[in-house]
Design a protein that fits this description.
The protein is of the alpha+beta class and 273 residues long. The protein has 7 helices and 5 strands, in the order ααβββββααααα. It has a domain of 135 residues: Protein Transport Mog1p, Chain A (3-Layer(aba) Sandwich). A hairpin with a 2-residue loop joins β3 and β4.
Length: 273
């Protein structure tokens, strides 16, 4: 509320009712929001001048208050009217350019001590609540400056995207040093390693082969050498040393008696055997 006390002291001689005190309060909120009072009444006059102070005749009409304002950074003209209705004051604020209107109703007993009109420290009650009401319900949104800044920022973003698009489509443009380096293969991998699994099916030179050798699959082995032969199954030398060998029966054990793989006995006609 800095500055309100100075304003209140300057116009204290004209404050003779709770309505006058509230109009003074709302006027100061207008000033803090970036507007200046240019005069009283509904129509402009040749003596209009921007000022933080209230015009000399601002409280000449005790039933209807009429004040005109102009924004500091634009030509926006606002007309503020306040009408006395019993113990309330109804504010109406109109933008003369857009014809947009906002309003606010203030109950005198909620925000003014009528018996303390000439004591600034005691005249206003719950001033913070009144400030919130004025800013949210009566004053126009603060978009004159922020809106333009937002527009300029979005245009800068669009220009930057267009510039990058033109650079990316230029085949003669030298890439920026900040661009990420292209992917390069690992120098430790042979450059002609493609197809190695076909040339080395068992993967004897490292890496995976294309054929799974059961003797090199990583599972536990019995430790036998198939080239030495399998009793009653393969004679020694039947499997060349180092050759791929797929076991086709229990290693080191003889088959037991007849099993489902043997021929049925003569004359046996059991089809489920």
């Amino acid at each position: 509320m800095a500055g309100l006390e100075v304003l209140f002291t300057c116009v204290s001689d004209n404050i003779r009712s709770a309505h006058d005190a509230v109009v003074c309060f709302v006027h100061w909120e207008m000033i803090k929001s970036g507007y200046r009072c240019v005069g009283s009444g509904d129509t402009p006059s040749g003596s209009d001048k921007k000022s933080e102070m209230l015009p000399s005749d601002w409280s000449s009409n005790r039933e209807i208050y009429s004040l005109r304002y102009q924004a500091n950074d634009s030509n926006a003209q606002l007309l503020l009217k306040a009408m006395v209705v019993d113990s309330s004051l109804i504010f109406n604020l109109m933008n003369l350019s857009t014809q947009q209107v906002s309003d606010l109703t203030v109950n005198m007993s909620d925000h003014v001590n009528a018996d303390q009109l000439h004591t600034f420290d005691s005249v206003y009650k719950d001033a913070d609540s009144l400030t919130v009401k004025v800013r949210t319900q009566l004053l126009p949104p603060q978009e004159t400056t922020t809106g333009r800044r937002t527009t300029r920022k979005s245009r800068r973003d669009e220009d930057e995207e267009q510039r990058r698009g033109r650079e990316d489509s230029d085949p003669l443009r030298v890439p920026s040093r900040h661009h990420p380096h292209p992917h390069r293969p690992n120098p430790l991998v042979p450059p002609f390693a493609a197809g190695g699994a076909d040339l080395d099916p068992f993967g004897s030179h490292g890496g995976g082969g294309m054929i799974v050798d059961p003797l090199r699959s990583g599972y536990p082995r019995s430790g036998f050498d198939p080239s030495s032969g399998i009793p009653d199954i393969l004679p020694p030398g039947a499997v060349p040393p180092g050759a791929r060998f797929d076991p086709f029966g229990p290693i080191g054990q003889r088959r037991p008696g007849p099993d489902p793989d043997h021929m049925p006995p003569p004359g046996y006609d059991d089809m489920f055997m």
